[in-house]
Design brief:
With about 190 residues, this protein is an all-beta fold. The chain has three domains: about 60 residues, SH3 type barrels (Roll), CATH 2.30.30.30; about 60 residues, Nucleic acid-binding proteins (OB fold (Dihydrolipoamide Acetyltransferase, E2P)); about 60 residues, OB fold (Dihydrolipoamide Acetyltransferase, E2P), CATH 2.40.50. The protein has no helices and 16 strands. It has a six-stranded antiparallel β-sheet with strand order 1-6-2-3-4-5, with no helix packed on it. Strands 9-8-7-10-11 form a five-stranded antiparallel β-sheet, with no helix packed on it. A five-stranded antiparallel β-sheet has the order 14-13-12-15-16, with no helix packed on it. It is flat.
């Protein structure tokens, strides 16, 4: 059985009947009392971060997961259809697993699935940054940049984000999928 001495960043454990990944940990040996391990855990399903303290040597349940790359094909009523890049097998993943990030996925984009020993999908990771083209936006006016003003823009996937006034239709943008914010314009 594994214990807290096996902690490392990125390790996935079962804690409070849910799966968490260890993002940070520190072993502490105070002058008085027993040693303990401070840790920061991130819930794989909800993304919530939790600080927890374990006694040194406390047993933990390590969950073995495998990362598999899939290609996003198309969206249907049941969810998003993905194809395994190695076996060309297609699966449908429910929309709830994407937490709204699916609006930034275009066909052909690569996503990663974390799959446990029972071939159950633990979580799904989309790319942090994607490149999308602006298909619809109002024209910007010269000289309006002093106020950091923004305007809405519709992207090729149908998502709408706020962009600076100098962005025009046809521009290629780098978008952060975690926050849905404009990052920069990419030169073609």
């Amino acid at each position: 059985m594994a214990d807290t001495s096996d902690f490392r960043n990125g390790l996935i454990i079962k804690f409070k009947n849910d799966l968490y990944t260890i993002t940070e940990f520190q072993h502490v040996k105070p002058g008085k009392g027993g040693a303990f391990v401070r840790s920061t855990l991130k819930n794989l399903r909800t993304g919530k971060v939790l600080d927890n303290t374990f006694r040194s040597g406390e047993s933990i349940d390590i969950v073995r997961v495998e990362r598999k790359k899939y290609q996003y094909l198309f969206k249907e009523a049941a969810g998003l259809v993905l194809m395994d890049n190695d076996t060309y097998e297609q699966i449908t993943v429910p929309l709830e697993m994407f937490d709204g990030g699916d609006k930034f996925l275009k066909e052909g984009e690569t996503v990663e699935l974390l799959v446990d020993d029972n071939e159950q999908i633990v979580t799904l990771e989309i790319p942090i940054h994607v490149q999308l083209e602006v298909v619809e936006t109002e024209p910007g006016f010269r000289g309006n940049t002093a106020t950091n003003a923004v305007k809405p823009a519709k992207l090729e996937t149908g998502a709408s984000i706020n962009v600076p006034l100098f962005i025009n239709e046809g521009d290629l943008l780098k978008v952060d999928t975690r926050t849905g914010q404009y990052m920069e314009r990419i030169k073609k």
